[in-house]
Amino acid sequence: MEVFKPLISVPMPAQARSQQALDRFLAAGEALLAANRFEEAGVAEIAREANSSVGTFYRLLEDKERLLLLLLQRFLMNVEQIVDEEFDPEAWAGKSLDDVAHGLVGFLVQLYKGRRGVLRALILQASRDTKVRDRIHVTNDFVSRKTSAVLRLHREEIRHAKPDKAARFISHVILGALNQHTITGALGNVSQRELCDELSRVFLSYLAMK
């Protein structure tokens, strides 16, 4: 697994009680993001949800913005870790290109499921913070390279004029569609199963283009 430059340094409390409080603040923040309530929540509410105090919050995290960046960083790193494990070419050896397309797309759909809040926060933060935007690009590029590594097993079946470039580009297409679907809650009024099927069709059709 590659080690990427962190978006923000993680606080390292000296005492166990402080570390436990930090963990609770992170858990409370994640819950608020999932409920689409992080933006409107104040520090007092976050502290209350974490069973801690406002003073402890400021001592450990300085401000709400720092908590958000830590949560976004943790999400991106979690995505990278999961993709690194699941997109191992050896695990896909022997599978058909059709199975690979449906498998990779289905995995990404599941990865996005239930994460509307954090993705909305990521996109909003990226629109005003170049560091966050650059960090998202790192994650997207990592997913692209891992997808390409799996598709390299089927390079001779890819009819695109530039097969290696196509193998890396297609994941960006799928991620873009999933971003739209996750943020808006709909993409052509399709079910979860239909979403997997239609994006797999896009995946295969693009690779077949000459």
UniProtKB/TrEMBL annotation:
Molecular-function GO terms, alphabetical: DNA binding
Protein's UniProt keywords contain DNA-binding: yes
UniProt superkingdom: Bacteria
InterPro entries: Homeodomain-like_sf (IPR009057), HTH_TetR (IPR001647), TetR_C_15 (IPR041669)
Transmembrane residue ranges: none
Domain named HTH tetR-type: residues: 19-79
Keyword DNA-binding attached: yes
DNA-binding residue intervals: 42-61
Keywords: DNA-binding
SUPFAM superfamilies, A to Z: Homeodomain-like (SSF46689)
Protein name: TetR family transcriptional regulator
Phylogenetic lineage: Bacteria, Pseudomonadati, Pseudomonadota, Gammaproteobacteria, Cellvibrionales
